[in-house]
Amino acid sequence: MAQTEQLEVLVLGSGTGGKLVGWHMAQSGRRTAVVERHWVGGSCPNIACMPSKNEISNAKVAQLARDGKRYGTVTGPVTVDMATVRQRKREMVERQIAKHLQIYEASGAELIMGSGCFVAPKTLEVKLNDGGTRVLTADKVFLNVGTRAAIPNVPGLEAARPLTHVEALELDYVPRHLIVIGGGYSGLELAQAFRRFGSGVTIVESGPQLLAREDIDVSQEMRRILGAEDIQVLVGAELLQVQGRSGDKVTLSARTPSGDQHIDGSDILVAAGRIPNTAGIGLKEAGVELDGRGYVRVNGRLETSAPDVWAVGECAGSPQFTHISEDDFRIIRDNLAGGNRSTRDRLVPYCMFTDPPLARVGLGEGEAERQGVLARVARLPMESVLAAQATDQRQGFMKALVGDRDDRILGFTMIGASAGEVMAGVHTAMLAGLSYSNLADADFAHPTMAEGLSSLFSSVPPRAVQQIKPKVA
Ligand SMILES: Cc1cc2nc3c(=O)[nH]c(=O)nc-3n(C[C@H](O)[C@H](O)[C@H](O)COP(=O)(O)OP(=O)(O)OC[C@H]3O[C@@H](n4cnc5c(N)ncnc54)[C@H](O)[C@@H]3O)c2cc1C
Q1: CA of residue 104 to ligand 1 center, whole Å
Q2: Is the dihedral of CA 97, 99, 100, 106 positive or negative?
Q3: Position 360 pLDDT exceeds 70
Q4: Separation of 72 CA from ligand 1 center, angstroms?
Q5: Rounded to an integer, what distance in angstroms lies between the CA atom of residue 204 and that of residue 195?
Q6: Which domains, ranges and CATH numbers included, belong to the chain?
Q7: Residue 467 has what DSSP assignment?
Q8: Residue 235: how many CB atoms within 10 A of its CB?
Q9: Interval between CA 80 and ligand 1 midpoint (Å)
């Protein structure tokens, strides 16, 4: 065994939270190493957010070209060259990696490319990618090992060599017919993108609706939007069997409420949940406990069961977004500087980058009901927002939940053009504790999509419970 090297800070996994911890600690003068087996900078810049949004933007251009006639721009037949799509994505990823390497260099954090496995508390053995082994121990250890795509246990699925987001974002051809298993965020984003590239697409979801965590009206509107692009959707589908090989010919058999169905496709993409990368990396030897689903057990300060070991990002069970992995870093940084921040009760905004996108912050109606929160609901079709009329991007709606006992904004959901940006305004108002009437009365620039917020919040119904006015003596 190699001689043990002593560090002050050791980070396993260079995802968003991990690299930020590493850079911050090194910049603060601590001897720091970040161990990464594959993706410099983690999933986001290499195989997840950034590459998927890059390819989605290519798909949007294809769609605009097809749809140009409606706006008076006439083009010929539209075809998509996936080799160029992939090349544009690869170039963006390369720029991102180069930027990351510059920051490592400037921060003084050592990036060690290799696979890490704990052999004792706070002691990691790293099998270096270019051969050899190093053993590292540190005063403080941070885990940021992320998750990977789960492959459901369906006969024949694994043998069919299905695509995950990693391979799908590397395709240099347009699948003739793509079967997408999973009607969540990444499934829908990629389903729509490939439809726009020219694939036939069928989405197969085992739950009763697309977007399981969203309200039924949100899910239905998204299904309508995808249906209008000729994307087939099966919900409540129990997967029975897969035959064939992705990239050639596959048949998925599923039991649905309307009977057994056999879907023929050329390629199959699995986007049906995530598995934490916590198995087989010696966490038991490190004294780090996992929960029943294999995520690292942490408290609100992201401290694990082992002293001086923290976990950040998806492996810690945090909501699966880059901005949350970053917030996990901020919580740890602030607490190590004497603060007392917690992950509990943080407001988690998110956006799904379909076209139009879906954005939500705070409660939806279903969640409010489950939590027993009384809320007033306002809803505005995008059709009635003037910017949507001017640009002819009229699909979707905005919805707001406002407290019934006070005027606090409890939640905002939007399907519509620029939903993520419009949501940021409501998110800010919620963080500032503004009442909904502040947004109803705000002068939003005309004609922007955000202008709809004023109409939306002006239509909040009055309180159901009458206020008891104090008697005037
Ligand atoms: C297709 C897709 C699209 C997405 N789009 C968005 C989006 O638009 N917006 C958004 O906010 N979020 C999005 N996400 C989620 C987002 O990518 C993650 O939440 C984010 O990257 C944070 O991940 P993380 O910090 O937990 O870990 P990761 O970034 O996954 O990093 C973990 C790292 O640990 C490394 N590692 C694991 N085990 C070891 C080991 N034993 N030794 C060495 N290294 C190891 C891995 O190689 C990896 O690089 C998307 C996810 C997917 C799959």
Answers
A1: 18
A2: positive
A3: yes
A4: 42
A5: 15
A6: 4-147+275-336 (3.50.50.60), 158-272 (3.50.50.60), 356-458 (3.30.390.30)
A7: P
A8: 18
A9: 28
Dihedral angle at the C-alpha atoms of 112, 114, 118, 124, nearest 10 degrees? Answer: -30
* Stretch 356-375: mean pLDDT: 97
* Contact 15 CB / ligand 1 (< 6 Å): yes
- Per-residue pLDDT tens for 198-246? 999 999 999 999 999 999 999 999 999 999 999 999 999 999 999 999 9
CA distance 358 to 11: 34
In whole numbers, what is the pLDDT of the chain averaged over residues? 97
Q: Find the 294 Cα to ligand 1 centroid distance in Å.
A: 16
Ligand 1 pocket residue status of 54, Cβ below 6 Å: no
Closest CA to 111 of 234, 12, 257, 217: 12
- Which structure tokens are listed for 271? 């986007």
Residue 2: band (very low, low, confident or very high) from pLDDT cuts 50, 70, 90: confident
User: Could you tell me the CA-to-CA distances from 394 to 122, 210, 253, 356 in Å, in that order?
Assistant: 55, 21, 36, 9
SS3 content of the chain, % helix, strand, coil (to 5): 35, 25, 40
Tell me, in angstroms, the distance from the centre of ligand 1 to residue 105's CA: 22
Which atom of ligand 1 is the closest one to the Cα of 314? 26
Q: Is 36 in the pocket of ligand 1 (CB under 6 A)?
A: yes
**Region at 266 (left for phi over 0; alpha for psi -120 to 50; beta for the rest):** alpha
**Cβ(298)–Cβ(283) below 8 Å:** no
Report in angstroms the alpha-carbon separations of 330 from 32, 117, 301, 302, 313: 18, 26, 11, 11, 11
Is the C-beta atom of 32 inside 6 A of ligand 1?
Answer: no
Residue 137 has pLDDT above 90, yes or no: yes
37 ligand 1 Cβ < 6 A: yes
Position in ligand 1 atom list of the atom nearest CA 49: 5
- Asked if residue 384 has pLDDT above 90, the reply is yes
Say which DSSP state 276 is in. Answer: E
Task: Kindly state the average pLDDT of the residues 459-465.
Answer: 87
Sign of CA dihedral 353, 358, 359, 365: negative
Residue-wise pLDDT for 234-257, tens only, equals: 999 999 999 999 999 999 999 999
**Looking at the whole model, is its pTM more than 0.90?**
yes
- What's the pLDDT tens digit per position in 104-124? 999 999 999 999 999 999 999
Q: How confident is the model at residue 466 (pLDDT cuts 50, 70, 90)?
A: low
Q: What are phi and psi of 469, to 5 degrees?
A: -80, 135
Residue 114 Cα: closest atom of ligand 1: 43
Alpha-carbon distance of 418 to 359, in angstroms, equals 9
